[in-house]
## 1
Amino acid sequence: MGVLVWARGPAGCGVLVWGLGFSFGVPQGVDSLVLESVMFAILAERALGPRLYGVFPQGRLEQYIPSRRLRTEDLRDPGVSGEIAVKMSRFHGMVMPFNKEPKWLFGTMEKYLKQISELSFTEKAQLEKFNLLKGYNLEEEMRSLRFALASHFFWGLWSILQAKISTIQFGYLDYAQSRFQAYFQHKAQCS
């Protein structure tokens, strides 16, 4: 399992570290890590992200930018919203040395479905919940998935996998069930 650590270092540097093969807690291949590093470097070069000082196999060294999270009321400020709009416009208008089509989400869900098809549970309660979730015919649902419903579907799949691989005690299968219930409820409203 990967661990994400972001710590402020000397002279305004930040160190971002994740476990081998993980990026933000999600399993990744070497290609994904290289692509992320290239994208991060380009964003830094164009002043759309912190400066990049170095990359190593399990993380990177980057500029530390003191900040705070935005609150809903902050977005009502025309100055803040305007600055976000300008930066987002610059970001989306950038020419990148790779395909910017949004393939990650659906590609990741396809990988999750394959991993889920190979899962087995031995504990009776987990097995019953897992079988209930399999009854949703997730592979067929994936073929007709609309982008607006993808969030519920993605987190439902993620939760099933976490039920098997996570060391954190949490009702992952119950969470998956709630996400798929929301998915089917919203799907019915869209039909």
## 2
Amino acid sequence: MTALHMLQMSVTDPIFLQIGRATSSKQAWKILRAEFGETNEIQDLKLTYLKTKFDEMMLEKEESFGEYIKKMMELVNQLKFYGSNMSDQGRLMWEGQQKK
């Protein structure tokens, strides 16, 4: 079973009509992404927002260090998802330099 066939079999009839003429899974995925996914512009905006949120992160008074690290790592994972190419270690080092 090809990836294209799996995509076509996985969608509802109205959506199948949109991708039914696709000749490759990449083409079908492109159609689906254009219809339902985020554009590059939206992803860039989210990445900018997440970077700003990360830069402004501070340990709250009632928050344990473990909770802070967990929150920070969740944000780092979101940054990676949206295309940030900074490693965990690089990001932590960068943050440390910013706060000096």
## 3
Amino acid sequence: MLSNKPVEEKPKSPLTNTDSWIRSAIPHLPLGVAVLCLLLNIIIPGSGTMLSGVAILCCGRPRVNSKDDHVIVTICVNVWVGFAQLFTITFLLVGWFWSLAWGIRMIILAGK
């Protein structure tokens, strides 16, 4: 028999993951650092993404769900993605748009 109890929804935390595994590597940063990363991604695609990974060491929080060390995984994925963004800029500016999207996502996560 079905019950008529209302389903309770848990409040969403900015650190919960509904993103893909690679997008979950975007760390939760303070707003100022997120804006700096976006500006760097606009100027040199991928540089802000790499900085966001390293910023985990001093002021950010990882969002990766991994059995391994969350900090190391976040740093490695962000550095790898940053290099991929930089090297794919030659393909119709794909890397620039990709790094721009990641920078905007960093600001959205910082605002939550």
## 4
Amino acid sequence: MAGTANCIDIILAIILPPLGVFLKFGCGHEFWICLLLTFLGYIPGIIYAIYAITKSLGSLILPRRTRRPMDVACSAACS
């Protein structure tokens, strides 16, 4: 089901870029950037909308990198 939602988000981003971004992020800064780019040119709006949607999908799938204890010790020793 998640794949279908992603496909629909991308199709909406191609048809009407600000709508696709708004449905994904709400009225945040991503929406306003997409709206401005769409006013300046339809193609930049599409490119940004697809980038923003796929970037958010990647952050949902990939876990954040956790710091290893050695990284913390090295950063504390170097300070």
